[in-house]
Every structure is written in structure tokens, then in C-alpha cells.
Amino acid sequence: MPSPSRNSNDAGPPTLDHVIGQPQVVAKLKVAVEAAFADSEPLPHTLLTGPPGTGKTMLGKTLAREMAGEFHEVLGQSIFGIGCLNGLLMTPTSPRAVIMIDEAHEADPSIQVALYKALDEGKVFIGNAQRQSLSKLDIEPFTLILATTDPQSLLPPLRDRMKMICQLRRYEAADIARILRQRSQQLGWEVEQDVLDAVSVRSFGTPRLALRLLDSIRRSGRAEGDLAITNAHATHAFELEQVDALGLDADSRTYLDILAMSRRPTRLTVIASRLGQPPEAVSRVIEPNLLWLGLIERNDRGRSLTPKGVEHIRGVPADTSAQNDGGGA
User: Fold this and answer.
1) 53 and 118 inside one domain
2) Residue 13 within any structural domain of the chain
3) pTM assigned to the model
4) Which of 28, 203, 277, 291 is 20 to 30 A (C-alpha) from 169?
């Protein structure tokens, strides 16, 4: 058994055959890898989309390993100029290299234009202000992977140049438990199966959240000097993290309480004000998980609890007669 590691990010699937979940995406990528080797060409440029934490970066790294090529990763918002982009595109030294731009929609439009021009030409363009000239430099063939939670914010010409589009989705709880078991074995962690099951149902179908929670549970165990991760450690960690049986934290439960106190749909701005958070943060961070769980619904009039949400927050069967009976509060 390998010596225990302290961080769940220290491991990952070595090949596509080891990737758990996302069967349609994995099948498509396997075909692409086989075709690339058969034709002695790089993988096609690929767009990975889906909710945060569903494995886009993991798949990018795995594809680079499958191709036995270099892997270069950068955030879209960190490409701060054309010179920075040119440096990135000139980094690969072999045609099997993978360049991954995470949060690609955050890249400035001028960067996106220069990027798809470089893909078309196979060159980067270097300007000389003193000579008022433009030089072209060849770049090594490579595979570009764009990862984004918001593909519609990419410029259409750049999006259209991606030959493969892979939509990742949230995972089933059983697949999350399998991912946690795989990662625990890679790291040399001894974990009770009940712990993995408890984490999986609190992860909102998101491996990143599940691994973060498993890390917290392991810290609880190590703080007591234990190597094996048990249910007792999980219970303690859930209390420290203020996570309930569905994985909801304190802010999410307060959000539900706000809706429970109103007989009418409540506007986002009202909820955000009571939470003390910006509306955008509430809509992008808190609401997606509540919607996925089916606890709330939202429309032009505001946000309301669903019958399932009423039952969860009050612990009693829902009375739907009071739901959605008026204008926004």
C-alpha cells in the first residue's frame, strides 16, 4: 500500500479506462484518442462544458497522459495580453501536447480572436511597434482544450473551431462513492464504506465537493491520531462544516428559511440582502445546488420552495396550497 498522502488532489485516474462516470463523454474521448494515434495526428480541439467541479480539468490531464504528451494549463483570466497568449501557444515542443484554458469564457474577447486566428494559421503574430511591422512565427501542432461553465459567453468563431464538444453532468451518488473509493485507495487511506456513502449523498453530484468533504473528514481523524477514517470522524466533520443530511450549509438553510417565512415568491435581491451577499453570488453559488435537489423553483416573480423544499426545511409533509399564490415579495 502506498504511504498515505495528505491531500485528495494528489491522485487521479491514470487513463480514460479508470475514469468513473460520464460514460458518453469518456466513450467519445476514447474514440478520439484511438483515431489520433491511427492517423498520427493530435487530438482534435475540444470544448469541455458543465457545472463546476465535475471533472473538466481531470479529463484534460488524463487526455494528455493518454497521448503521452505535455500538459499546459492556464486560467482564461490570467492571459492578460497577446504576448502572454503567444508565449503559451509557443510552449509545446511536441505535436501531442495539450494546452488547456480553464474558465475560457473569462478570457478577453481580443485574446479569443487572436486564439482562433492562431488555430487557423498555425502561427502566432508578433507586432513590432518601432518598425510598424507584423511577423509570423510557426507554432507546433497541439490540442487546445477549452473548459468552461458558460460556453455561450465564448465568441462563436472560437466555439465553432472546437471539433469535439463534451457536456459533463452531475454524477449519481453511486458513482461519487466509487470515485471516493478509487481516490482513497490511490492515496493509501483506509475509509469505511459508510463514510463514502454519507459523503456521496452530500456532494450534489460533484466530485470536487465530495473530495473536499472527504479531506475534512480525514483531518478530523488525524487530529485524533487515527489513520482509519470512520463514521465517528464523518459525524464530527459534518458538524464542523455545518453540513446537513443533504449537504446544505448554513447559508443554504438560511436561504430556505427566508422562503419558508413568505407565502409569496421572494425576489433574489431580497434574499441576497437578508443573507448579506451579492445577488450574483447567491444565484451562482447557492441556488444551483438547491435547484438540482429540487428544493426551490424560480421564475419571473421570484423564488419559492417546492413541496420537497417545504418538507426538508420543516420536517413535515408539504402543504402546497400556500405556494406561489401572489406576486414577488
Assistant:
1) yes
2) no
3) 0.85
4) 277
